[in-house]
Amino acid sequence: MGKLRLRRPVIESAWLRFTVLQFVYWFVMAIGNYQTVYLQSRGYTATTIGLINAVLSAVTIMATPVWGMISDRIRSIRRVFLLTLIVGSVLFAFIPAIIGLPVLSAPLMLVYLSLVYFFRNPANAMMDNWLVRYSNQKGVDYGSIRSFGSLGYAICGVLIAGAVSSFGTAWTFPVCSAMMALVVAMSLRTDDAKPVAPATGAPAREAFNPLTLFKNYYFTTFLAFSLLLYIVINSAAAFLPYLLEEVGVSSSRYGLITAYMATLEIPMLLAARPLRRRAPLFALCIASGFCYAAACLLLGTCAHSLGMIVAIETLSGVGSGLLIASAANYIYTLTPENLKATGQSIFVAVTALSGIAGNLIGGAVVDVLSAPLLYCIMGVTGLISALFLLGTIVIGAKLLKQSPPERA
């Protein structure tokens, strides 16, 4: 009985630590969210920024599965998260100084940025994987914890908007990196989430085969859906400053808009548990696709003022909240225990592949045609992605007789 009495306080203590960690991590990440605006202020064209982001997405494709497999091998998410976070943050601080060197050629600058994002982007994946595994193992509400991350992001976006307008964006890089020391300190006091030992008792080395993931119909089709949808998400986020400029709004407002979108994620994340009792995870992903499609189509046709853009981005915020609440958890249900970090990392790598396409397409369309036309193209792509996932679920259930995971 004594052990039973201790269980709830122990879980509540871990819940509190994860909640505070999420708030602080995403608060600090919001400070470092101005790379596109910074490059734009340095005179880089949309095509060049798109190319840079595409290369960094390619780096993420290679790096994230590597770190995920290392995490599964050493049976620790926290250790890999801390390594990637610390190295990535130190390198991230010097981006303005490196870009500002007059003797540095464009290829060398790209090499440095690639090194930064070899560590920085996988840290995001490790953080999300850490929370997903903890919430599923302990039976706690993922959405309620993750919503504090969105809250932190939103609060920071509002707080630093004035500083960005007055002092530019170069300062955000070192400040973001320095404040990551808080995240490191808190991570060391937060429980690791280790995989449960295989029930068969087979040695981990024999059971570890990432290729088996691709034999799962729903895993592979969800990756295809993600490839399409994240083209929309990456492109819409990367080139929003250009849309703002085209309609006569300063790109310094970018942070306020993303803060507003993050605020809208909070109610969707808090509603995640009751939503998941009423609808399967894949249905939430489909709904997210429709939200992004509608938002992009409206941004491409009706965005003529800051107020209109903010109103339309309500749909993006809702779609983002639904996707955060469902996608990583859906991947979790589709992967075996000893490959969960690898499965999440492959998912992130696919979204990075979308980043290549989204940034290359976006840069070219914005420079040659216009930002509104880009958003119209992305709206159609988002609609196709949602219909594609719906179709694969129907085909899997009706023709292949494979029932998808209903809830997690």
Question: Explain this structure to me?
Answer:
- This protein is globular.
- The two termini are 29 Å apart.
- It has 17 helices and no strands.
Which structural class do you get from the secondary structure elements? mainly alpha
Helix-strand string: HHHHHHHHHHHHHHHHH
Helices, by number, come to 17
Shape: globular
Low-confidence blocks of residues: 1-7, 198-206
Q: How much helicity do the residues have? A: over 70%
Taken as a percent bin, the fraction of beta residues is under 5%
Brief sketch in words of this structure:
This protein has 408 residues and is mostly helical. The protein has helices at residues 2-31, 35-41, 46-74, 77-93, 95-99, 106-138, 142-167, 172-188, 204-207, 217-238, 240-246, 254-270, 272-278, 281-302, 306-334, 340-368, 371-399. Residues 1-7 and 198-206 have low confidence and may be disordered.
Keywords:
globular; 0% strand; 408 residues; mainly alpha; single chain; 17 helices
Topology:
Layout lengths: L1 H30 L3 H7 L4 H29 L2 H17 L1 H5 L6 H33 L3 H26 L4 H17 L15 H4 L9 H22 L1 H7 L7 H17 L1 H7 L2 H22 L3 H29 L5 H29 L2 H29 L9
